[in-house]
Amino acid sequence: MTILNTPFKIDDLYWREAGSHRQVTVECPMCCGQRYVTVTIGTGEQYTVECEACGAGYLGPQGVITEYDVTPKAEKFIIAEVKEWRDKRWSVADAYGQTAYFDTLYKTEAEALAASEKRAAELVESNMANRRKKKYGKVSSWTVLYHKRQITDFERQIAWHQAKIDAKGAGEK
Ligand SMILES: [Zn+2]
Questions:
Q1: What SS3 state is found at 69?
Q2: What is the dihedral of CA 149, 136, 54, 45, to 10 degrees?
Q3: Residues 97, 15: Cα–Cα separation, whole Å
Q4: Does residue 155 form part of some domain?
């Protein structure tokens, strides 16, 4: 066996970040699962419109949104095998066949846990950023305004068509 000049030894104990990273479905924070929100416009009139925070295109509001959840965790990693040296990084494996870059391993459990907690905090932040984008990127009052304008337009068109029919009717008399 070739002896490689590694910064670690076989059977050395290290720790790795092992936070379980999963997608979770949570109740929509905007409509609290109601699927509709009530919008009050400047005139004081209230409208109930489909929630846009949990809207999913043609499917309409779902009452739930998808977020990422991470549970911070540190796990032992005992180096059992050297996998490769590539791009100036050591790749190692443990006895269970899990592989990791050596430079992502930590000497102590505390360090690995701190890194995992930091990652979890970043994820919470990104979830909040997504919520903000959803919440303020689309504003339900604009939806109300849009529909009100459409109604006004159609009413005007109906009136115009009605007048044409009436005019023709009047001409034939
Ligand atoms: Zn919603």
A1: strand
A2: -40
A3: 15
A4: no
110-168 pLDDT tens trace: 999 999 988 888 888 887 777 776 654 455 666 777 778 888 888 888 888 888 888 76
Q: Could you tell me which residues come within 8 angstroms of residue 82 by beta carbon, excluding any fewer than 6 positions away?
A: 4, 6, 10, 90, 91, 92, 93
- Do the domain assignments include residue 82? yes
H helix runs in the chain, sequence order: 109-137, 140-172
Q: Which two tokens stand for residue 66?
A: 């998808």
- Count of domains in the chain? 1
Question: How many whole angstroms from 131 Cα to the centroid of ligand 1?
Answer: 11
Looking at the domain assignment, is residue 20 inside a domain?
Answer: yes
1 burial level (CB within 10 Å; 0-12, 13-18, 19+): exposed
Answer whether 48's CB lies under 8 Å from 17's CB.
Answer: no
Q: C-alpha distances in angstroms, 166 versus 4, 78, 152, 154?
A: 96, 89, 21, 18
CA of 27 to the centre of ligand 1 (A): 8
C-alpha of residue 130 to centroid of ligand 1, in Å: 14
**Would you say residue 129 lies in a domain?**
yes
Q: Which chain residues have CB less than 5 Å from ligand 1, an ion?
A: 28, 30-31, 51, 53-54
